[in-house]
Amino acid sequence: MKTSDFDYTLPQALIAQRPLTPRDASRLLILNRENGRIAHQQFSDILDYFNPGDILVANNSRVIPARLYGRKPTGGKIELLLLEQLDDTRWKALVGGKKMGEDSVILLDGDETMTGMVTAVLDGPQREITFSQPVNAYLRQHGHTPLPPYIHEQLADPERYQTVYSRPEGSAAAPTAGLHFTGDLLFALRERGVIFETVTLHVGLDTFKPVEAEQVADHVIHSEWAAISPAAAKRINEAKLAGGRIVAVGTTAVRVLETGALRSAGLTGSFRDISARDDAGETSSLCPWKPVSAFAGPTDLFIYPGYKFRAVDAMITNFHLPQSSLLMLVSAFAGREKVMQMYETAVAKKYRFYSFGDAMFIT
Predict the structure, then answer these.
(1) Domains recognised in the chain with CATH numbers
(2) What are phi and psi of 16, to 5 degrees?
(3) Which of 4, 233, 329, 348 has minimal CB crowding within 10 Å?
(4) Burial track 85-111 (b if 16+ CB lie within 10 A, e otherwise)
(5) Which pLDDT tens digit goes with each residue over 72-119?
(6) Contact, 194 vs 52, CB < 8 A?
């Protein structure tokens, strides 16, 4: 399967530059993957598509203010985007600045005591940075929210790039499907008998970038830290066994749940080639439901057409970039042809795309 199979044309005017108020005022495209029927609603109408006993599972990771500014000792400007914490003082980061080789020193703005040094040169603009002290307190005071490059407007309220249920810090980008939920909407779902549960996946920028390999199976997805607590796994499994659907909020929640299901099936370690193995028939095409196991650690699960879903019954997601691994995951869930036709419909109906855009509910 070629990466070009997941391309589509999007007018620039449909890339949302700001979030709507209230959060659940966005539009919602409903896709029934069995019969291909499409409906157009407002996100707050999603209440009508849940049954008592369903369990809504969301990624509670919080975006850190990971964009930092500084300079070289010679005066040249430097921009850092922190991607992954390696230990108390070491981070993997994207570095904007010329000739940032090993042992290059960075003087960070706002605090004369805070410096960084490039201690390893990684792929492309990625570097390992070792700071003079832990940066957590510095980030809260001097860090900036890292909006995606396709958003060109300043965000007046940084909390609008956080979900209302975000808790543990660690993401370089928001799990955007959850941005549509308000506290009132979550309360209304609970009143309907829907269970709400959270898992964690700290989102890295690799999740969102286009796949560059010509063949989908040749793409290497970087691992991200994820977790399902024992209590959450128990509640998710009990809800499913009682007849409820597992509804994932976003592709990151999907990957956490499916990683937990693969672990319960006795598979551990790297899941890099699991989609290809499924497609080759090493697992049943029916792939009956598997309970999710609690875990905490890295996942490199790359879901693309051919993958057999073991845990997730329905998915809420935004509209994703062409040729991205996220679009491939959604296509694995609903079928590539249905998804690409749905995207054509969304463009024709002038839906808003990407992080601050509208949503879809695939049932």
Answers:
(1) 3-63+158-362 (3.40.1780.10), 67-142 (2.40.10.240)
(2) -65, 130
(3) 348
(4) beeebbbbbbbebeebeeebbbebeeb
(5) 999 999 999 998 889 999 999 999 988 899 999 999 999 999 999 999
(6) yes
Q: Which residues pair with 115 in a beta bridge?
A: 107
pLDDT, average across residues 338-362:
97
Tell me how far apart the alpha carbons of residues 35 and 32 are, in angstroms, rounded to a whole number: 6
Q: Minimum mean pLDDT among 221-225, 243-247, 279-283: which range?
A: 279-283
Asked which of 119-128, 202-211, 299-308 is least confident by mean pLDDT, the reply is 202-211
Are 10 and 322 contacting, i.e. CB atoms less than 8 angstroms apart?
Answer: yes
pLDDT reported for residue 279: 80
* 4 C-beta neighbours (distance < 10 Å), count: 11
Q: What are the tokens at 339?
A: 């998804």
CA 335, chain centre distance (Å): 20
Query: What are 109's two structure tokens?
Result: 């703005």
HEC string for the chain: CEHHHHCCCCCHHHECCCCCCCHHHCEEEEECCCCCCEEEEEHHHHHHHCCCCCEEEEECCEECCCEEEEECCCCCEEEEEEEEECCCCEEEEEEECCCCCCCCEEEECCCCCCEEEEEEECCCCEEEEEECCCCHHHHHHHCECCCCCCCCCCCCCHHHHCCCCCCCEEECCCCHHHHHCCHHHHHHHHHCCCEEEEEEECCCHHHCCECCCCEHHHCCCCCEEEEECHHHHHHHHHHHHCCCCEEEECHHHHHHHHHHHHHHCCCCCCCCCHHHHHHCCCCCCCCCCCCCCCEEEEECCCCCCCCCCCCCCEEEEECCCCCEHHHHHHHHHHCHHHHHHHHHHHHHCCCCECCCCCEEEEC
- Interval 217-231: pLDDT, tens: 999 888 899 999 999
Residue found under tokens 């605090």: 111
User: Is there a contact between 209 and 323 (Cβ–Cβ < 8 Å)?
Assistant: no
How far is the C-alpha of 265 from the C-alpha of 291, rounded, in Å? 8
Do 104 and 70 meet the contact criterion of CB atoms below 8 Å apart? no
